[in-house]
Amino acid sequence: MTFVLNGETVAEQLFNTDIHRSWQEIVDAGILHEQDNVLVVSARADDDADRNKGSEVVISDVVIHYRRHI
Asked: How much is the pTM?
């Protein structure tokens, strides 16, 4: 899966084990905006065997913590 925030790839995750539960990423300064942020999550199967498994990916509870140095 690829996670793109405001046009910048911020994370890529392979499904090479049975269970994945959560991810945390630190993104570079300037990627997150005060408003109108867009997060696009995409997934692809690497081969026909993966595509025919009928798997499902559910994305929920996306939380972004923002810290600003003053």
From this structure: 0.69
**What is the number of structural domains in the chain?**
1
Q: Which residue do the tokens 């690829």 mark? A: 2
Integer angstrom CA distances of residue 39 from 14, 17, 30, 49, 53: 18, 25, 15, 29, 27
Contact 1, 41 (CB under 8 A): yes
Measured CA to CA, the distance from residue 57 to residue 8 in angstroms comes to 22
Q: What is the pLDDT of residues 42-56, one digit of tens each?
A: 877 666 666 666 667
**Cα of 7 vs its chain's centroid, Å:** 12
Q: Token pair 């899966």 is at which residue?
A: 1
Domain that includes residue 12, residue range: 1-17+36-70
